[in-house]
Design goal:
3 domains; alpha+beta; 15 helices; 4 strands; 262 residues; Leucine-rich Repeat Variant
């Protein structure tokens, strides 16, 4: 147990996402149990001897929970339930960082909390879930009592790429944003959703050589040349989607999210 604790301290206090994730996953079930012990205050895994502050340490612990959940979500959820954790506590443990339909009910429970910080965390996590229930919650959060939650909902809806978000965001914009910065966030979220929806209609396929887009019924083709991507619009509909296709070059995240659904 002592050796395991020292190994976990070394990981958590010097957390680097990709390398630390694989090392933690290799430790398996014993590491999960000890990590949950630390979250329950039964063991201290923070050395306090690095440049990491308390907030960064908490972020590392959540990242560690997420790493183990990626490897075996069912086992992590069973461990939570065995320990009698509430749905809200489970939601805020870090598993919300993992896109998984099994996580969504816990995040929805956290969003129903009377505590604004719980709702804010839930909304931030829901933005990473590609699930209609998550989008529905984000749409409801546009009317939340907390301005922080409303702002997070606007930002989250800009990430989900769901066409249903466009009209409610337009209504928020028409209703008058209380600040210029908030108005800019609303506009950015609308543009992102419109762009992603355009890409979805185009059928985006992501592969190592670059981006390959075939427009349904439009007869357009984007291909990778030695001197970079070259656009070949063949009709007016393709030209109207030029902005959407250019976004692919600047934001691979869109390509990943859309490509995963095709």
């Amino acid at each position: 147990m002592r050796a395991l604790d020292e190994a976990l301290r070394a990981l958590l206090n010097h957390w680097t996402y990709w390398e630390s994730e694989s090392q933690l996953q290799a430790m398996g079930r014993p590491a999960l149990g000890r990590l949950l012990d630390s979250l329950e205050g039964k063991v201290n895994l923070w050395t306090g001897k690095t440049e990491m502050d308390g907030r960064e340490y908490e972020d590392a612990r959540q990242a560690a929970v997420a790493a183990l959940a990626k490897a075996n979500m069912a086992a992590v959820l069973r461990a939570f339930k065995t320990r009698g954790w509430s749905d809200i506590r489970i939601a805020l443990s870090g598993i919300g960082r993992v896109p998984d339909r099994r996580v969504v009910p816990y995040l929805l429970a956290a969003y129903e909390s009377k505590e604004p910080t719980h709702r804010l965390s839930a909304v931030n996590y829901l933005a990473g879930q590609r699930d209609e229930r998550a989008t529905d919650a984000l749409l409801r959060a546009l009317s939340d009592r907390s301005s922080d939650v409303r702002r997070a909902a606007i930002n989250g809806l800009g990430e989900v790429g769901d066409a249903r978000a466009i009209e409610p965001l337009r209504l928020v914009a028409k209703g008058g944003a209380r600040s210029q910065s908030l108005a800019q966030w609303v506009e950015a979220a609308i543009v992102e959703n419109e762009t992603i929806e355009s890409l979805r209609r185009l059928q985006v396929h992501v592969h190592p050589a670059g981006v390959h887009v075939v427009a349904l019924g439009l007869g357009t083709h984007r291909r990778r040349q030695k001197d970079g991507a070259r656009q070949v619009p063949l009709d007016s509909a393709a030209r109207e989607n030029e902005r959407a296709r250019q976004t692919v070059d600047h934001n691979d995240r869109y390509c990943s999210s859309v490509g995963s659904t095709t």
